[in-house]
Amino acid sequence: MQKYAKLFLLILLILVIIVILFLSLNGNSLFQKKDYIFGTIVDIKIYGESKTLASEASEEILSNFKKLHQSLHPWRKGLIYDINEAIQNETPFLIEDQEVISLILRGQEYENQTKGYFNPAIGKLVSLWGFHSEVPRKIMPDTKDILKLVEAKPSMENIKIINNKLISKNKFVKIDMGAYAKGYALDQAKDILEQYKLNNALINIGGNILALGMQGNKEWVVGIQDPRNPNLMATLTLKPGWSIGTSGDYQKYFIVDDKRYSHIINPHTGYPVSNTKSVTILIPPGNNSGEKSDVYTNPIFIEEDSKKIEIANYLGVSHYLIVLENNEILISNELNKIIMWQDKIDEKKITIY
Fold first, then answer.
1. Mean pLDDT across the stretch 278-291?
2. Which end of the chain is less crowded, N or C, counting CB atoms within 10 A of the terminal residue's CB?
3. In the CATH hierarchy, which fold is given to the domain comprising 219-352?
4. CA-to-CA dists, residue 352 to 18, 279, 321, 329, 333, angstroms
5. 193, 201 in Cβ contact below 8 A?
6. What does the alpha-carbon distance between residue 102 and residue 164 come to, in Å, rounded to a whole number?
7. What is the pLDDT of residue 137?
8. Residue 204: which residues within 8 A CB-CB, separation 6 or more?
9. Model pTM score
């Protein structure tokens, strides 16, 4: 009898080892990889896969991000830098990179679609305000310089591409894709994960987030930053395939005479937006969904208070959270259903649409 008991324990031990190995090989755990790209923290989480496969996919994603960052950087040597130099010198430029051509053409579409609030051609304004530098400004730019750039009306529509040759008749155009590079990168990450047949992942590029699948038997949970302190204002669950984008005046800014000047500039006035603290939106699965989650926060952020909901509806954004300068919160009914506030919120300051 004792012999059978020992045999049973041995078999049981072998089964336990097999189960452990199976779980290990099949990666029923969370793999995480971080890096610093696009001027922010990139966080990749992959669930339920082997460490080897998850690591390989993550490395390819990060390598792709670094290539994009170098190519699209507006003031460091790269393709966009070279294009901007050619525009400044009023000379044609041959673009052999079809990916960048596609981004420029979509930038034109987005500018038209957002009534000019999203305008990647205002790089000179962004630079004038000091946001093409690692060191924040300490003084205001000259009002005449701001007015000069606004009156020049730089627009993506000033750019023509014929047979891969780019020309612009407006030398005040300077392309800055910072407003949608991260969202585009999310879409690229999604394609890479699909190539690796990885179905459960969360990609976070400084608040621009894409969810694929789930984390085990639960949906991915993401946080929404409080625009005035390091704590989370709220959390919510992201359904598979959905993207979330946030624009905030706390991400890049400088302060002069107790007034905050953020990197989000109204192309029509030439000045940083002062009526909004943050905008968070959710975009459902679809073509360029990551890109749209990045782009569409801008017009909602910039538009005047009375028209923010109107432009959100016009763009087809059904899930939005807007924090105004006076701390009033505007939230869509759809997002209000799934949001979980972290701190006590004054309900009198919340308006549900």
1. 95
2. N
3. T-fold (3.10.520)
4. 53, 15, 10, 8, 6
5. yes
6. 11
7. 80
8. 41, 42, 43, 44, 45, 222
9. 0.88
Residue pair 127/174 in contact (Cβ under 8 Å)? The answer is yes
Give CA–CA dist 74/38, Å, rounded: 12
Tokens of 172: 């005040």
CA separation, residue 275 to residues 117, 181, 278, 299, 328 (Å): 15, 25, 10, 13, 11
Place of tokens 């971080």: 34
Q: Is 334 exposed, middle or buried (0-12, 13-18, 19+ CB in 10 A)?
A: middle
Residue ranges per structural domain of the chain: 75-175, 219-352
Site of tokens 């994603």:
61
Nearby residues of 95 by Cβ (< 8 Å), 6 or more positions away: 79, 83, 101, 161, 164, 165, 166
Contacts (Cβ under 8 Å, ≥6 apart) of 118: 110, 111, 179, 180, 295, 296, 298, 299
**33-86 tens-digit pLDDT:** 999 999 899 999 999 999 999 999 999 999 999 999 999 988 889 999 999 999
For 21-34, what is the mean pLDDT? 67
| Contacts for 322 with CB less than 8 Å, ≥ 6 apart | 276, 278, 279, 300, 308, 329, 330, 331
Backbone conformation region of residue 213, classed left if phi is above 0, alpha if psi is from -120 to 50, else beta? left
Residue 28's pLDDT is 59
pLDDT digits (tens, 9 = 90+) for 1-25: 554 444 444 444 444 444 444 444 4
* Site of tokens 């020049």: 152
What are 126's two structure tokens? 């962004």
- Six token digits for residue 165: 């040759």
For residue 312, the model assigns a pLDDT of 97
Architecture of domain 75-175: Orthogonal Bundle (1.10)
Q: How far is CA 151 from CA 54, 167, 213, 270, 294, in A?
A: 50, 20, 48, 9, 27
Judge contact between 43 and 32, C-beta under 8 A.
Answer: yes
CA dist 60 and 270 (Å) reads: 38
Please give the sequence-ordered ranges of beta strands (E in DSSP) within the chain, or none if there are none.
30-37, 40-47, 93-94, 159-162, 165-168, 201-205, 208-212, 220-225, 232-238, 243-248, 253-256, 259-262, 276-283, 319-324, 329-331, 340-341, 350-352
